[in-house]
Amino acid sequence: MTDQKKEEYISSYISKLLRKQFGRGPQSCQTTVTKNHLVTYIRGFLSPMEDILLEYGQNKYVDYARNVIITHLLDEIKGVVQVTLGVEAVEYYHDWNLPNNSGVLIFDLDTESGQEYNSDVDIQRVELEVGRISFMVEKVPDQIKTYPISPSIYLIERSGILIQIEKALIEKGFENELKFTKDELEKRYFHRDGRFEDIFNKSVMDIFIDWNFKKDKSIMAIILRA
Amino acid sequence: MKGEVYIKSNQENLVYLSSKFSKLLKRRFGKGPEACNVFLKGNRFYVYMRQFITPAEDVLMNQGQLELAHNFRSTVMNSVTQEFIPEVSKILGISFDYFFHDWNYDKNTGILLLDQAQSNHEENIDNSFQTSLFHLIENVGSKYTKKPASFKIVKFTQNICATESKDVLLPLEKLAYEKGNVDLLLHHAWNIKDGYWKNKEQFESLFGRLIEDMFIMWDYKNNRNYLVFIFNKLDTMK
Asked: Which of A24, B47, B83, B188 has the most CB atoms within 10 Å of its CB?
């Protein structure tokens, strides 16, 4: 199988899995593998049940339930990635933007698999901007790394992001509430105050953020209009 | 003859409504129930469902998120039922003011009841039996909930017995309802149902029938509940 065929196979598998689990498959599901990352960008994912819940303003239920279900599916997807690409997914992240009806799955691979994408974007500017916004919300991360995936997908990894009060909340078992709150807060700032359109010279379609609280890090996916 | 024609057409209406509701559930949940039986008694319309659990709920349950699955289902069911009621009213010529539902995730069964504010139908059955059942419900329930002020059997056939109890809430339950502590009331309701289920044999010996399923639907607003027993179709007790 060519690299492109492998990506298509993984996309199709994820699409079918989501249909089986949620009663409706996504409208589109596109997988890109670049070096040590696999990114699947999903559009039109909301199931009929979730549509109703959102109508009733129950965003939190949708968020929590989808989180539980996807976390359960990720192990299976991880297995498919392993079999298809012959590499292991060591970490995974996911995030869903309900207003845009779009979502992303991100896997860190233990071995380089896809082609490298050489971006002509000023990466230092991207990282300075991410640091600036992170500081507005909370603190400048200890470390920021950018991984260009394709002309329309950039991953930004932030490490050393949690402050003491957050660590205490996580210890007390408020991980879900913290994630839900941080998600809303950070995205609002990144969308409203981020100068990413100027830096990338393209309009921003989506910003996804997920966290690994245990490792005190976060991964962000910026999706640009192709 | 006229009566026969009416019964047949009414039966057809019920079959149509059962199929209609099943399709609605499938459209909204992505999966409909395997069986969907409807009953009508007076101005109360019951739907008994088997195998309702969707793959998404299955995952939530296996991950120990029963409360989340229940809240998910409740919200969707409220929307589906509001969509269904006008159709039932049109077909049966009955208006409905309230609806309640209850789900047994362990047995994969659920019940929906459409009710009218003026519903005053009660089964005309042996008074001593009704008294015995009331006492049993009082005794079994006393460990878990308040003694009801009044009680009546509102449906009783070979398949189902439904009872309505009024003035069933403790002050603390009323307060929890007023404060919107839905999750607390939900866990409490599960606990009460478990209590009744543990005493199933006592009810079985009173009914002389094996009990396959049991539901309690709470009307917190009007301080009452419906307790529904579903009997095993195949077995009767000797």
From this structure: B47
Determine the pLDDT at residue B1.
42
Query: How would residue B238 be classed by pLDDT, with cut points 50, 70 and 90?
Result: very low
Nearest to A96 by CA among A176, A210, A204: A210
Beta bridge partners, A97, equal A102
| Chain A residues in contact with chain B using a Cβ-Cβ cutoff of 8 Å | 20-24, 47-49, 52-53, 55-56, 58, 61, 64-65, 68-69, 71-73
Token digits for A146?
């950018």
Quote the tokens at residue B18: 């059962």
d(CA B209, CA B126): 17
With tokens 């504010």, the residue in question is B117
pTM, two decimal places: 0.79
Q: Tell me, what's the pLDDT at B120?
A: 67
- Can you tell me which residue has the tokens 């009733």? A56
In this prediction, residue B182 carries a pLDDT of 83
Q: Where are the beta strands (DSSP E) in chain B?
A: 35-41, 44-50, 98-104, 109-115, 150-156, 160-166, 209-219, 224-236
Q: Work out the number of other CB atoms within 10 angstroms of the CB of residue A63.
A: 20
Rounded to the nearest integer, the mean pLDDT of chain B is 88
CA distance B193 to chain A (A): 25
